[in-house]
Design goal:
45% helix, 20% strand
Length: 163
């Protein structure tokens, strides 16, 4: 992404917040490229790109990306991320996409706004990510369908800023 590199160079070292936003944008472009490629290759199984890494990084990227969108929906984002590294063997792009989807669903479950909490912690030797919202919850009638590919309760699947 040559254009992002040019922007980073023009910013110099003085604007660290803008540089961080550019890093998130760059990472999201790569993630979206992979999402599109996955859709193109839908008939083939996804090849996981597992890598040992600190989970605080991909979760932090998603939270930075989601913050502005959530505030426009009157949703307050509360995050509690462990201060120590939480190392796990994950496919960061797929993890980010899953977390984005859950956060987006949580925000949509609170049309009048509310509080969305994201907690990343370590429990013994397990990484634990909890995402909770103040929505009405999932009705019994559809609970068994929520893991079906492309299942939605929306009359029209809306495009999202996060995808």
């Amino acid at each position: 992404m040559v254009h992002l590199e040019l922007l980073k160079n023009k910013l110099g070292d003085g604007n660290t917040q803008a540089a961080r936003h550019l890093e998130v944008i760059d990472a999201e472009i790569h993630r979206l490229d992979r999402v599109v490629q996955t859709l193109v290759d839908f008939s083939r199984p996804v090849e996981l790109q597992l890598r040992e890494q600190d989970l605080r990084q991909p979760i932090g990227d998603v939270l930075a990306l989601a913050l502005d969108e959530l505030s426009t929906r009157n949703v307050t984002l509360e995050s509690q991320v462990a201060s120590n590294p939480i190392i796990a063997n994950v496919d960061a792009d797929l993890l980010k996409q899953a977390v984005i989807n859950v956060i987006q669903n949580g925000a949509q479950a609170m049309p009048e706004g509310g509080r969305l909490r994201v907690i990343l912690e370590e429990d013994k030797k397990n990484a634990v990510l909890r995402i909770t919202d103040e929505g009405t919850g999932i009705s019994e009638e559809i609970r068994d369908k929520i893991f079906d590919l492309y299942f939605t309760t929306r009359a029209r699947a809306a495009a999202s800023v996060w995808r």
